[in-house]
Amino acid sequence: MKFDNSKMKISMLGVLILIIGSLSLYSYVNRGTTTQSGETYHFIKPVFAQSMSTAPTFLDEEAGISLYVNINRSIDLSVARPVYRTMEKETADYIVGSVGLPGLSSDEDVHCFVHKDGWIVTYYLKGEPLSKIVDWNLWSQSASKLTKNKLQAGLEQMTSAIAVSVSSVNYYHFHYPNATNCMIILKTVVGSGDRSFNVTIPDDIKVSERSWSHYAQSTWYTYEGTYHTYFKINGNTINSISGITNPVTDYGTLTFTNLTQGTPNVVGVSSDARSSYLYGVCIGLVYQEP
């Protein structure tokens, strides 16, 4: 994949989503620094029942977007236990609970399933949007990308505790078993003004979920202003954040009316802040390729 501030193309087996950056007419638009990135994850259904003595059927009932790995050796559950902030269920075969993430509140905890047969799954619940996996604290402005997402951060905490390194992981969405991929598209701005990009979802893509994340942070920590940032699609305000003194992240889902298929959607993010103000928006899609 290749990205720049004016154009981004993402190939999906011959299907194209095109994102084209556009500049605001405000005279001070060049004060801001814009970066844009995107990630696509292919879904692979896990084969737990063929590998474990006790299949975790509850994941089909409660899990949404998930990241999983088999470390190819048994796991001592007593070593995994201290990683959990809270324990939800513990048996002789597995543990399920929530794992805290650095710099985030308990509302952002990932759920983690660890089985003695070597399986580890980090996930959010099926009612939580894909965009929740974005941790804006892990956004690299210089590299124009996320260094990792929340599911990866949670998995790393568990694998570190059990002293194992993993190089290959898989994604799956238990709530949308027919979905084949998910995509997150991010744009950040430092400074003031408006930025926007176009998202066109082809008609032959079956979209299971549309979601968003909106972030704002004052990088001048001594300032206590009342700046605002707005996230809009096609001119309609989806979310606003006001009076930022600490980092704030909001997220939610979109309807077909909010983000249509077959025609360009203008996704915009704006702020009246100073040059030290960082804000951004993410669009998340869970979909099935034709």
Summed up, what is this model?
This protein has helices spanning 48-51, 58-62, 77-80, 150-161; strands at 2-3, 7-12, 15-23, 33-42, 63-70, 86-90, 94-99, 110-115, 119-125, 139-140, 145-146, 170-173, 181-190, 193-199, 206-218, 228-233, 236-242, 248-254, 265-271, 277-288. With 290 residues, it is mainly beta.
Could you please describe the fold and organization of this structure?
This protein is mainly β and 290 residues long. The chain is globular. The strands form 4 sheets. The protein has a 7-stranded antiparallel sheet with strand order 1-2-3-14-19-16-17, with no helix packed on it. A 6-stranded antiparallel sheet has the order 6-7-8-9-5-12. A 5-stranded antiparallel sheet has the order 4-13-20-15-18, with no helix packed on it. It contains 4 helices and 20 strands. It folds into 2 domains: 2-41 and 179-288, Jelly Rolls; 48-173.
Give keywords.
290 residues; 7-stranded antiparallel sheet; 6-stranded antiparallel sheet; 4 helices; mainly beta; disordered N terminus; 2 domains; Jelly Rolls
**Widest beta sheet: strand line-up:** 1-2-3-14-19-16-17
Radius of gyration: 20 Å
Uncertain spans, ≥5 residues at pLDDT below 50? Answer: 1-32
Q: How would you sum up the major sheet? A: 7 strands, antiparallel
Proportion in helices: under 10%
Q: Which CATH architecture of the largest domain is right?
A: Sandwich
Structural class: mainly beta
Oligomer: single chain
Shape: globular
Number of domains: 2
Beta-strand fraction estimate: over 45%
